[in-house]
Fold this sequence. Notes:
- The chain is α+β, with helices and mostly antiparallel strands.
- It is 34% helix and 29% strand.
- Strands 1, 2, 3, 4, 5, 6, 8 and 12 form an eight-stranded mixed β-sheet that branches. A four-stranded antiparallel β-sheet has the order 9-10-7-11, sandwiched between helices.
- Bound molecules: cytidine-5'-monophosphate.
Amino acid sequence: MTGLTARVPAKLNLQLAVGPPRADGYHDLVTVFHAVSLFDEVTVSRAGRDAVTVTGEGADLVPAGQDNLALRAVAALRPAARRAGAGEAARRGVRVTIVKRIPVAAGLAGGSADAAAAMLACNELWGAGLPVPQLVKVAATVGSDVAFALLGGTAVGRGRGERITPALAPATAYHWVLAFADGQLPTPEVYAALDRLRAAGAADGKARPGRPELDPSLMSALRSGDARLVGRALSNDLQAAALSLRPSLRKTLAAGLELGALGAVVAGSGPTCAFLAANAERALELAVSLSGAGVCRSVARVTGPVPGAVLVREDDTPEPPAGPPRCPP
Length: 329
Ligand code: C5P
């Protein structure tokens, strides 16, 4: 086997409650993560040294050096893999090839998703056999959203988002329309904007926010499986900050609601907006109308919840021979 491919979903936050900044610069939060059917694919194969190639949506915006989050995840996994007996295999380099469909810096945790997929695939490539809970522990050191990308589904995140508990809910499929915006919103800038807005008393009335709390109305809506209730309970403390940096998103959110969405929320730190529809047919109508309304760059229909990172392919093709490529006859 020369390569292994994992598929990994984007995430939405059905609730994102943000506390004050901590001494380490992060914010304590309580969030309800929800994995949706927009996937990146990540292939790992043996190489002389660690390297990454990125293709697809926004590929030129992804760091291609050792600071790439997927490569950092591979490096973070190595010691644990070696302790688990992976030995020589984990000592060698890895080529990571990422095919992006999740837009970059769009509030959908695409970078974290790639990191989670690279970890899952390397665990297999090296024969380390680390169980998921141990992968989750390493993931938590790589980034706030990486642990959730391994698990998927709908789950409550605490701490800086890395402490995950699956949410108990019936197997309802929710139909979402995502409205992608031009450009990116870097996550640290959005958190910093929230701190400034709160200090000026202009964010959410929480000049000195207390401990973030899970919203009981969202949890009971999820238990009921009623999309109307879930739509009404969507909330995101980062939304005011994202709107302050990108005022045009107000129009996008309002358009989706006018066009019949059950709820609308900025995805994570934005600028993607997520709209909940009553069913697949309504989602299609909403997607068509939104893309005609000129309030976003493009739209996608997705469903959630979906599982986290999964292995989808083993590649057995032999390594290409060294030397110049030969033309077919
Ligand atoms: O953990 P991750 O690298 O995804 O976080 C990106 C940035 O988002 C952090 O450097 C920090 O500025 C901000 N952040 C935060 N509080 C969190 C999660 C992220 O302030 N709980």
